[in-house]
Amino acid sequence: MAVKYFQSQLDYKNLLDTIVRPDSRWLDIGCGCNVIPPWIRGSVDFQRDLIGRCEIAVGCDPIDGRPHEAGLEKFVGDCSVLPYPSGFFNLATANMVAEHVSDPLAFTREVHRVLSPRGRLVLHTPNLHNPSIFLANLLPNKLVSIIAKQMDGRTDEDIFPAYYRMNTRKALASLPGFRVVSLRCVRTGPLLRKVAVLREAESILLNRASHRFFRNLQADWIAVFERLP
């Protein structure tokens, strides 16, 4: 899997490197087995470095009980009712998780609860207004799962229903209890790269989306929020 196809994951990795500090009390939401994808060169060592520099680092995942590759301690269960005191963390992150949230209000409320005032929330998630994502959202989840297996070689453990209820600029900019620090629509490569005709058509759309008038059509959002008191 070529790194060039997923530039937004590298952008997210670089953001984590700047935002995770020795005083961080960090919660990675929907952590699965990795904070960043394992295809990124040196990903496990990078994750261990992030975890090691924190005051506290834990993860949570609703169903994935597999051991975390970087040794992150994690809670497996209902992430809308976390077993942590209010204001326990000053940083929460979610990498390709927000699109799977069926109840954004409950999700946001619980993240707000466990974050301290002025704590940061970082989301990396697909953009519903990107043509490929918009099309995927119109398809049944079962069909999307089949396509994901064929296109990306993903296993059943790595495929989850998607709702895209937090995946527009408007939805992200209006999260209750949070102030937007930065909100960027970022480029990635063709999601349909394994089918030549579709790859070329999507590449044309991606190049068009580079124009400032179409910048909100890029594939992914990287958003940083600050928790309001």
Quote the CATH topology: Rossmann fold
Shape: globular
Q: Please tell me how large the radius of gyration is.
A: 17 Å
Spell out the helices and strands N to C: HEHEEEHEHHHEHE
Give the domain tally: 1
The counted number of beta strands is 7
**What is the straight-line distance between the termini?**
43 Å
Give the helix tally.
7
Architecture per CATH nomenclature, i.e. the level-2 architecture: 3-Layer(aba) Sandwich
**CATH class label:** Alpha Beta
Strand order of the largest sheet: 3-2-1-4-5-7-6
Strand content: 15-25%
Mean pLDDT across the residues is: 85
Helical content class: 25-40%
Sheet with most strands: 7 strands, mixed
Determine the CATH superfamily: Vaccinia Virus protein VP39
Provide the structure class.
alpha/beta
Poorly predicted runs are: 1-5, 192-199
Summarize this entry quickly.
Helix content is about 30%, strand content about 20%. The chain has about 230 residues and is α/β, with parallel strands linked by helices.
Characterise this structure.
With 229 residues, this protein is an alpha/beta fold. The protein has one domain (3-127, 164-189, 217-227): Rossmann fold (3-Layer(aba) Sandwich). Helix content is 32%, strand content 22%. The chain has 7 helices and 7 strands; from the N terminus they run H-E-H-E-E-E-H-E-H-H-H-E-H-E. The chain has helices spanning 7-19, 43-53, 104-114, 131-138, 141-152, 169-173, 196-209; strands spanning 25-29, 56-61, 73-76, 89-95, 115-126, 178-186, 220-227. A 7-stranded mixed β-sheet has the order 3-2-1-4-5-7-6. It is globular, with a radius of gyration of 17 Å. 36% of the residues are buried.
